Amino acid sequence: MANDTQFQHITTLEALEEFCSENANSEYVGFDTEFVSENCFRPLLCLIQVSTDKAYAIIDTLVIKDLTVFWNWLCDGDHITIVHAAREEFLFCFRDVAKRPANLFDIQLAAGMIGCEYPAAYGNLVNRMIGVTVDKGETRTDWRQRPLTDRQMAYALEDVVHLWPVHNQLKTKLEQLGRVDWVRCEMDQWQGALEKTITHPQWRRVSGIARLKPAQLAIVKELWLWRNEEAQRKDRTPKRVLADDLIVELARRGTSAPAQIRAIRGFGNRVQKTSIEGIAAAIERALKMPKSDYPKRITSTKTINLGLLGQFITTALNVLCRSEQISSSIVGTAQEVRDVAAMRLGILKLSEKPRLLTGWRAEIVGQLIDQVLEGRVAIRVDDPKSDNPLKMEYIDANSDD
To answer: Is 288 helix (H, G, I), strand (E, B) or coil?
Structure first.
């Protein structure tokens, strides 16, 4: 248990440098963080917990401001970096040094690849893989408070002490199923997608802009850029500076006149008066933009339901995934399945090849949808009392039955 684990409590840059040097040739590095994300532009990193084959450590990141040496150590070398659901951990690292952790392995993702529930909580996954019960007593801790209690540090450390044995169990199973490369591929795509959230403005994620015209999208983009800068300056969440629905309404009205901006219902109660000037200036920049610089209109994909056929195909996918020992939620969503079926039926055109038909997903889904549409798949009740009550059978197309 983490309560009995000896660890270093690192509170100086010199001690951090020494730790990284002493663990430079580690076989693995497990790491996790504690942070606070409420009402701030970016999550505030409060602690980093680390495990290697040589030592354990808790790094106080409220005291040590420059973590470059740690992130470079994490990204360099041949070690395996083991994490659990590490979106923010990856972003902390990439923002600081613009590099990926070495050989990143996410136990949550890997567990889904062998048929476990996805996404699975850390405690549930540890218990299932190695039979250890994880303490959940400090889940509401404010990690900004100092000094930390022994109980708080033991709780934080437990998030990394089990990563290596869980990794080993998962890797063995992945090797048996021939899916080690699948995990590598998915981790690469996952990290690439996260990098884009930093390197590419994410203004197209503003909700409610699907039907806007290019000129209106130009206003959305300029307002999003202004909002992001303002939120960073004030250290507030962007939507508290200017909500998405207000951005869309401003884009629709297409005016930079302060009086007309204030006239939007509820605007005065939700936006600071001092923001009017910046909002008007952002809109004016968009209004003066050459048409050739307008963003392209968002291509909307028609949603296809397919009724009972869609339900049957989704059920077939779930049955197949259970038999193949992989979580269906990793393979794809029900809507993705219906879209591929609609594409095969010629009632939907997709601008790019669906991910269900690429890479390792093609190996799982592969011919399934075509086989269903051709009437070559049947599903029957096998054992109604089992965890897998349904069984899928393939019908010989040349059969006379």
So the answer is: coil
User: What pLDDT digit, counting tens, does each position of 196-253 carry?
Assistant: 999 999 999 999 999 999 999 999 999 999 999 999 999 999 999 999 999 999 999 9
CA pair distance 391, 389, nearest whole angstrom: 7
Q: How many Cβ atoms sit within 10 Å of the Cβ of residue 4?
A: 7
At 289, the amino acid letter reads M
Q: Are 135 and 157 in contact (CB under 8 A)?
A: no
> Measured between alpha carbons, how far is 313 from 345 in angstroms, rounded to an integer?
13
CB atoms inside a 10 Å sphere around CB 116 = 22
Is the bond preceding 119 in cis, omega lying within 30 degrees of 0? yes
Q: Are the beta carbons of 57 and 8 closer than 8 angstroms?
A: yes
Report all structural domains of the chain as residue ranges with CATH numbers, in order of start: 2-198 (3.30.420.10), 203-293 (1.10.150.80), 307-394 (1.10.150.80)
Q: CB–CB of 159/49 below 8 Å?
A: yes
Please state, as a whole number, how many other Cβ atoms lie within 10 Å of the Cβ of residue 322: 18
What three-state secondary structure class fits 112?
Answer: helix
pTM over 0.70: yes
- Within 10 angstroms of residue 106's Cβ, the number of other Cβ atoms is 24
pLDDT tens-digit readout, 343-379: 999 998 888 899 999 999 998 888 899 999 999 999 9
Burial code of 158-183, b = ≥16 C-beta within 10 A, e = fewer? bbbbbbbebbebbbebbeeeebeebb
Q: Would you say 187 and 106 are in contact if contact means Cβ atoms under 8 Å apart?
A: yes
When comparing pLDDT for 285 and 150, which is higher?
Answer: 285
User: What are all long-range contacts of 197-200, with beta carbons under 8 Å and residues at least 24 apart?
Assistant: 197/91, 198/91, 198/94, 198/95
DSSP 8-state secondary structure symbol assigned to residue 294: S
Q: Diameter of the chain by CA atoms?
A: 78
Report how many helices (DSSP H) and strands (DSSP E) the chain contains, helices first: 19, 8
Other beta carbons within 10 angstroms of residue 24's beta carbon come to 13
User: Are the CB atoms for 46 and 152 separated by under 8 Å?
Assistant: no
Terminal C-alpha separation, the chain: 60
Q: SS3 letters for 335-389? A: HHHHHHHHHHCCCCCCCCCCHHHCHHHHHHCCCHHHHHHCCCEEEEECCCCCCCC
CA–CA gap between residue 204 and residue 201 (Å, rounded): 8
Token reading at 156: 């934080």
Strand partners, 365: none
